[in-house]
Write the structure tokens for this entry.
Amino acid sequence: MSAAGTWDIRIKTPIGDQTARLSVVPDHVGGFTGTVSGDPGSLDIAGKVDGDRLTWTMKTTKPMPLDLDCNALVQGDTLEGGVKAGMFGTMALTGTRVG
């Protein structure tokens, strides 16, 4: 199933669960573009699609500057994966397709 669409995601962080909306627009060469929008604001993202697996990186400044390496496995209308946040390790990422 395609990862295209809009997803409500949840990341389990050391400061509590963080929620955001993820949009994924696949291209035709194995990549995608989109946005991640939540309390800290909106970030443009670009990443790779490998079968049902999405991978992307993003930088955040709130609550502190961090480089985040993200991955998610799409299974129907759900996704599951992780967000590697430097010295904080990898945090669980889950999501549900909303559109």
The domain at 5-97 is CATH 2.40.128.120 (Lipocalin).
